[in-house]
Design goal:
single chain; alpha+beta; three-stranded mixed β-sheet; globular
């Protein structure tokens, strides 16, 4: 799991200038939900990026989602994105 989170960080850092990124795994909070799958993660990204802050919130989130498109189809069930100033 730790290695996979590092892969996510690297994918984002290779495409976007980031000052800091933290990944919080909230999967345990969703165990009783209807579509819960232990193979897929519920993640929160806490990102600090001057570049992303220069974009509209929607465009910044679209950029992140595009970079993680394959992961969202295979390994991530839910993704919360917080872009900090």
């Amino acid at each position: 799991m730790k290695i996979y989170f590092e892969e996510i960080c690297n994918k984002l850092k290779n495409e976007i200038e980031l000052e800091n990124i933290e990944i919080v795994d909230n999967s345990h909070k969703h165990k009783g939900h209807k579509f819960y799958s232990p193979e897929k993660f519920h993640l929160k990204l806490k990102i600090k990026s001057s570049y992303l802050n220069s974009l509209s919130r929607i465009n910044a989130q679209k950029m992140i989602m595009k970079i993680l498109k394959e992961d969202l189809e295979t390994k991530i069930h839910a993704l919360e994105i917080s872009i900090e100033k």
